[in-house]
Design brief:
Distance between the termini: 39 Å
Number of helices: 15
Number of strands: 0
Order of helices and strands: HHHHHHHHHHHHHHH
Structural class: mainly alpha
Helix content: over 70%
């Protein structure tokens, strides 16, 4: 799964540029995050909720918060496992488990600190190239992981909306259409990515026409970059995705892992609710957190800030009551702010042994176990 020599050389120069851009975005994201935390504190003071918040923290059952943190760790492990499936399918891949732990951590760190998680993709591709893949293979691995993750998210939320729409509308009125609009935006994003992967020629024709039209009106700052993306990146992304999705069985396993991962993420409010003594069952947690995440994903700010705040108050406010702000801050600490710092020590992990791929090591272990059983 490699590009030709000239393509590899051209692509290989891009990760370095993306790395510099990512560091700049991450720094801005850190400043933004500090501003958001300060805003939460000021909001508690101005609205007179600080006493309630401090009292609720004093009475907090920390065991449930520890369980919520463990739930996130399992979510992270599931993410590493999804990458491991793609690497295992490539029988000669030099990427190891510790490399993949770093890849997943890079996606979390740079994704959480950049608008719409745009920093996640280049950071993960760069980390995969550092692990020994060429730029084409790294792009294929990340692209497959990213698209299957988004397909899982959109389809998961589609089931929740389809099954519970009438009940949601009865509880929240027309506000449920906020989540529906957010879901449509997510669907359009994934359809656009799939169009690039499966219909590159049509996308290039449409893209060239759009770039020329926008450029003539002076609305395009960097014509060369837009032209390069349409005429080079689209074709390369399509080729990479098609090569990486040759194994339908592998894609199916990855989708199943993604569904498990999303379930773990959507269960975190249930642990938080129990920590504050609020009544919320696990199924309701999954449904309501999915709605919150849908709205957040449609907001182009780091972590969906603003969108998740509003959605939490709409969908989970009735459950937490006076503790809505406290519950929200604790949920964000476990599922968004905490993971940023959790990812930092994992960013530079490297696998030591590269003489055998994951597939080869698995076969060695499996055959060794078989020999022991026969003896």
């Amino acid at each position: 799964m490699a590009f030709g020599k000239s393509r590899k050389t051209a692509a290989a120069s891009q990760p370095g540029k993306d790395s510099a851009e990512n560091k700049g975005r991450a720094f801005k994201g850190m400043l933004f995050l500090a501003g958001v935390v300060l805003f939460y504190v000021l909001d508690l003071i101005v609205t007179g909720q600080m006493d309630t918040f401090l009292t609720s923290l004093h009475e907090l059952e920390t065991g449930w918060i520890v369980a919520a943190a463990i739930c996130y760790v399992l979510y992270y492990i599931a993410g590493v496992s999804a990458y491991a499936v793609a690497v295992w399918l490539d029988r000669d891949s030099p990427v190891g488990i510790r490399d993949l732990m770093s890849v997943e951590a890079s996606g979390t760190f740079f994704g959480n600190l950049t608008p719409a998680m745009v920093g996640s993709v280049p950071a993960q591709i760069l980390r995969l190239t550092n692990a020994g893949l060429d730029a084409g293979e790294a792009t294929a691995t990340q692209l497959t992981r990213g698209i299957t993750q988004q397909i899982a998210s959109v389809s998961y939320c589609a089931v929740i909306l389809f099954v519970g729409f009438v009940a949601f509308q009865a509880s929240y009125g027309n506000l449920i259409f906020l989540a529906l609009i957010a879901w449509v935006i997510g669907l359009l994003k994934i359809l656009g990515q799939l169009a690039i992967c499966y219909f590159p020629n049509q996308v290039m024709r449409f893209g060239n026409a759009a770039v020329k039209w926008i450029s003539k009106r002076g609305w395009l700052k960097d014509y060369g970059r837009a032209y390069h993306f349409v005429n080079n990146e689209v074709s390369e992304l399509s080729d990479a995705f098609r090569r990486a999705t040759n194994s339908r069985q592998g894609i199916l396993v990855t989708l199943v892992i993604n569904y498990i991962q999303l379930t773990l993420l959507y269960l975190i409010p249930w642990f938080v609710a129990n920590a504050f003594g609020c009544d919320l069952n696990p199924v309701a947690s999954i449904e309501l957190c999915a709605l919150v995440q849908m709205v957040g994903a449609a907001v182009p700010l780091p972590g969906g800030t603003g969108g998740v705040d509003v959605a939490w108050n709409i969908f989970l406010g009735p459950t937490f009551g006076a503790l809505t702000t406290a519950g929200f801050i604790m949920w964000r600490a476990v599922s968004y702010i905490g993971p940023i710092f959790f990812a930092i020590p994992l960013l530079n992990l490297h696998s030591g042994r590269r003489e055998q791929s994951l597939y080869q090591r698995w076969n060695t272990i499996a055959h060794g176990a078989g020999k022991k059983r026969r003896h």
